[in-house]
């Protein structure tokens, strides 16, 4: 992507706007309130077109200086998913065997997670999100990217919300450390893996932790002045 050197304006794109924004926001909340992290996936196929559209939506997220410092690797190949699972579980075993510290393990206890990550091979798709720490100027030089964590975090939110609206389920997975993802996915040094998103349909007998459904009430997360 070439650097923009001058400011050029264009008209704001036309879009449909609901007559009652509060009602529309309530409808969006009602939909997202049913979103839950799923660890049990069915073998039901998810078309590539759905993944492409969801990632395209994520790519519309705002970013610092519009540098769009992200890359998404969507994986349906069974061998690649198996390699990711093996590497992730190796890191997770070290995590749960004491690397994390007892306080962290105590915080995770109500979620019911452990070192086994079958979702990494059960889910029909894995989307690995990378943050581009710097770009290139076309002459071998580096171009600094600004607000990378913030920008990538917003894009991930767009992606998860779009997948939910598409009727799909997902699980955010952040093995630590996760440098192995760069090697498996063949990504350059400039890119830092941020998370794995397992995507598919929940199994018919899927169960989710009750604790994870307990969200803070609005008056604890909102201040209006």
UniProtKB/TrEMBL annotation:
Entries under InterPro entries matching the protein: Nitroreductase, Nitroreductase-like, Nitroreductase/BluB
Single GO MF annotation: oxidoreductase activity
Limits of the Nitroreductase domain: 33-201
Region (Disordered): 1-23
Keywords: Flavoprotein, FMN, Oxidoreductase
Name recorded for this polypeptide: Nitroreductase
